[in-house]
Amino acid sequence: MKNFINNYIAGFKAFSPNARNFLLLTFLMSFAQSVFGLVFNLYILKLGYTRDFLGTLGAIPGLSIAALAIPLAVFCGSLPARKSLLASLALSFASMAGMAVFPGRAPLMFFSLVSGTAGALFAITAMPLMARSTAEKERQHLFSFQFAVSMTAAFAGNLASGWLTGFWATAFSYGDETAAAYRATMLAACALLLAAGLPALKIKEAPAPKDKSGAAAFSSIALWPALLVLAPQLIISFGAGMIMPFLNIFFKSSFDLHISKLGFFMALMPLAMAAGGLIGPWLVTRIGRVRAMITFQALSIPFLATMGFSGYVLPTVAAAFVRTMLMNASWPVYSVFLLSHFPASQHQAASALFTAGWNLSSALSARLSGRLQMDFGFTLPFLITITCYSAATLLLSRRFLKEDSKKAVTQTAIKEEIE
Known about the structure:
Layout: H1 2-14, H2 17-46, H3 51-76, H4 81-101, H5 105-132, H6 136-173, H7 179-193, H8 197-201, H9 215-219, H10 223-243, H11 247-255, H12 259-287, H13 289-309, H14 313-340, H15 347-376, H16 379-400, H17 411-418
């Protein structure tokens, strides 16, 4: 354990100023968005909208990210990362404030679209920026550390959101969780998001050469091999879209939790993600990158089933914690796995393809889930998620397990890359 911690401390000290500023930006942004996200679904239902409409709102950001990721990568590929990040933060602020202030159906849908635009711009910038900000041997540490930082911030944000909403509920309506209490928490999250602009302003780098970004990068990608690399995660994204955007609704409707307790349980999920993100590189050094992803994903499936069908709050929460930790341990490992299949000049294009595919799959799933929940509750969505996770793990095993052969990936090579 001491070596594990020292390894990350040494890795953090080796990060460039851009990498450290991006980590701070990630923390502040994730904190604010988690404060907002805990109560948003509850706010929509409290306004009187159905779960079907909630599914529509949940799908719009993902669909807009899917539609815009590639065009933005083409037309904004040569922009400095600082400008892209600041634009993303501005759009995110506008979307959060708009959804808090304007409760009508059309404004909610419009600002959901704005939220997706912000997400697309951030997504196509983040992965290439981290890759450019580190040497290859430090890359796995940065991706894992960034993921853990964002999840730790989400843990704190969910706790803060539960406490804030409880305070507003007491102040406004003698403890009742009204739309006004939810709205006050959402507006507080908007104010918190502004702080993320400070580290974004400190990120400095030259724009990418025109022949290394934009349309030129897309035109040189071999489509079929790229789709094979993307396919396992796209299947997972469809399964995740069935459940994860509605996890607060699942806990609330299944066990009738007070907002403060809901905030605590939801805060455990990003904490589990943070723990998973940090243990991923440890397993990679022992069994290889692909075997690590397969192991994490396969072990998470029984806990997913327990989470969906136990019917008791403590086993459900415990299973959700372990499932979240295991499934998300593979996320930063997959990010490096993805980039390793493309040259540096194609990293932004690859990131855009992944972002578009992930969000299209997740958005379609979220839209379908909203409809299914009205007819079947969460039973069918959980069964679909289990099927998707199993299929993705099998595909990863059949297509990429050979990459962890003694010839392709040695333990020494992996250790040199991430230490």
